[in-house]
Amino acid sequence: MPSITNGRVLFAAAPEGYPEPGKHIVYDTSKTLDLETVPLNGGILIKTLELSIDPYMRGQMREAHIPSYMPAFPMGEPIYSLGIGVVLRSEHSDIKAGDHVTGLIPHQQYSVLKVVPPLRKIENPHHLPWSFALGVLGMPGQTAFMGWNEYSRAKKGETVFVSAGAGAVGSLVIQLAKMDGCKVIGSAGSEEKVRFMKECGADIAFNYKTTNTLEVLKKEGPIDIYWDNVGGETFDAALDAAASNARFIVCGTISTYNDPKGTPIYNMPKVFEKCLSINGFLYQPLEPKWRQQFAATIPPLVAAGKIKHKEDVYEGLDKVGGVILALQKGANKGKAMVHVADEV
Amino acid sequence: MPSITNGRVLFAAAPEGYPEPGKHIVYDTSKTLDLETVPLNGGILIKTLELSIDPYMRGQMREAHIPSYMPAFPMGEPIYSLGIGVVLRSEHSDIKAGDHVTGLIPHQQYSVLKVVPPLRKIENPHHLPWSFALGVLGMPGQTAFMGWNEYSRAKKGETVFVSAGAGAVGSLVIQLAKMDGCKVIGSAGSEEKVRFMKECGADIAFNYKTTNTLEVLKKEGPIDIYWDNVGGETFDAALDAAASNARFIVCGTISTYNDPKGTPIYNMPKVFEKCLSINGFLYQPLEPKWRQQFAATIPPLVAAGKIKHKEDVYEGLDKVGGVILALQKGANKGKAMVHVADEV
Fold this sequence. Notes:
2 copies of one chain form a homodimer. Chain A has about 350 residues and is α/β, with parallel strands linked by helices. Chain A folds into 2 domains: about 5-135 and about 310-340, Medium-chain alcohol dehydrogenases, catalytic domain (Quinone Oxidoreductase, Chain A, domain 1, Alpha-Beta Complex); about 140-285, NAD(P)-binding Rossmann-like Domain (Rossmann fold, 3-Layer(aba) Sandwich). Helix content of chain A is about 25%, strand content about 25%. Chain A is built from 8 helices and 17 strands. The first copy, chain A, has helices spanning about 140-150, 170-180, 190-200, 215-220, 230-240, 270-275, 285-305, 320-330, and strands spanning about 5, 10, 25-30, 30-35, 45-50, 80-90, 100-105, 110-115, 120, 160-165, 185-190, 205, 225-230, 240-250, 275-280, 310-315, 335-340. In chain A, helix 8 (about 320-330) links the parallel strand 16 (about 310-315) and strand 17 (about 335-340). In chain A, helix 1 (about 140-150) crosses helix 7. The longest helix of chain A has 21 residues, at about 285-305. The interface between A and B is medium-sized, with 33 and 33 residues.
C-alpha cells in the first residue's frame, strides 16, 4: 500500500490573547504514512475518529518554560486532546484491530501510540455514540459529577448558581443540582444557550451579555453554592451575592484565559465576612475516587434519555483551529468536538 | 455620692479611608453618673477595666444601612468592643459586686448592662492578668486555635506562611504550626515584629515593607498552608507561591479595610490550577465547637510560660481613637488594648 497523507494540527506560535487559526494553530498536510508498514514498536496504530476541544487547551498554548497544571504543547508539533480512535494494527497483547481507545490523542489522522495511561481501551456497554465518551460520559460529565459530589454539600431548597450553564460541564451541574432539590440559576452568553439551560431544568436562566449578573443574583439569591466555570467579574458578583457559609466550586475561569493582564477580583474580603469555602479542583486527581459511582449512575441515565446534553460537532481535522477559537469566545452550541473520520 | 464624669468614646462619623481620632472617633466627657443611685433594672453596673482594640472594628465604622458581618456602630453613641469590667453593683442573681465580666463592653468608664450573651461572668483559675482574657486567652487566641484546628489539615514538614505574624492571632498561629512540626514563614511590618516572630519560632521571618513577599515565598515555598490576616497583594503572592492542594485560611484582610476602591486580586485562576481550598471564617460560629478543647490546651501552656504573646497597652479611655488608627496602620507592638482603670 502506498503512503497516504497524514493531516496534522500543529502548535505554531504561543498567542498573547485569543489563538488565531493559521497563525497559532496550523493545519499541515506535509507528512505521509504507510499504514501497513509503519513500525509499531510494541504499540498500536490508530485512525482518529473524534477529538474533544476543551477550554483548558488554551492554557497549553504557551511557551514551554512557563509552568502550569497541564504541559505546554510542544512547539511545531501536533497538539493533542482527549479523543477516540479505532485500532488498525496492534502489537499490544490486550488490544486488537477494531478495538477502540481513548486518551490524549495527537491531532493527526493516524497515530502510532504506546499504550500507557491515560490511553486505554474503551468499551461501550450501552451502545451509545462513541462521541458521548468525550462529553457527558467523558471528562466534562465526570468533572461535573465529581466536583458536585465532592464539594457542593447541597441541601434541598438551597440556591445554586452555575456560570457557563449551557456548557458540557455546566449543563450537567444544573441537572445534578435539580436532582438534589435545589433552586438553580444559570448564566450563559446567548439566547439559544438560555433555552438549553431551561431545558436542563434551570429555574432562572439568563444571558449575561444582556442582563446584569449581580442584579439577577441579588434578586434570586443569596446563593448557597456557586459553580464557577468562568471566573472574573462573574466570580466577583457571586462573592457579593453569596449567603453565609456558601460553597464555591472553581472548575475553570474561561473569562480570564485570553487576558494577558489578568482579571481583577475585588470582593475577596467576603470570604471571611461570610465564612465562605472555595474549592478549586482538576479532573485527574478526583477521577479514581469517583470512577465507580459515576459509571453506576450517569451512563444508565444517559442511555435512558434522562440526561440532556448537546454536542457541537465540526467535520474535519482542518477545523480544529477554528473550533478552539470559537470555544474561547463562547460561540459553541454544545460540547465542542471534531469528527475526524468515520469508523469505516 | 455626687454624680461623677462618665468619659465615653463616640462614633461621630464614618471614615472613607483611615479613621481619624477627633473626627470619626471622639472622646467625650459631657455625661455624668451617680454610681450609687443609677437604676440597674435587673442588670449590673460595671467599672470598665480593659478594652480590646481589634482590626475588625474598622468594619463597624460605617453607615448603618450597609450590611456586613458585624453591626455598624450606632452614630453618635459610644462604640464597643470586647472588654473586662469589675462589677460595682448587681441585681442579677448569679453575679455579685467584685465579680468580673467579659463581653462586648461600651467604651465608657462606667456602664449599666443587661446580662445577656455574649456578656458573661469570667473566672481566672490560673490567676493570670485579666488582660490575657482579651488576647492570648480571648478572642484572638481562640481565633488562632480554632481556625488552625478546623482548617489547616497540617502535616509534619509542611510549609506554612502566616501574614501579620506578630499580631495577636498570627503569633499564636506560628506557635501552633511549629507544635505541628511545620516550617513557618512569617511576615510583618517592622524589624521589632520580625524579632518577635523569630522568638515565636518562625523559621523565616521578614519585613514585607523592605523585602519582596513573593520572592521570599518562591525561595522558601511552595507553601502548603497560608494563614491570611491581610488580604490584598500578600494574598495574591500566596496564590502564586502555593503548592498543589494548599489550604488557605482567611481570618481577615486588614490591607483592604481602609481602601474604599477595594484591592484587586489577580491570581484566582490558581485556585483550580492548583486545586486550592480557601476557607474564610469568623470567631463566633466556631466558638462553641472548640471552646472546651481550647480551655484544656492553651491556658495551661500560657500559665506555664510556654506560649509567647505580647500586649501593647495604652493608658486611658481618651486614647481609643489613636489606638484604633495605629492598629489599622500596623503601628501596634502586640495585642492592642486600652487600660481604662485599675480594679481599686
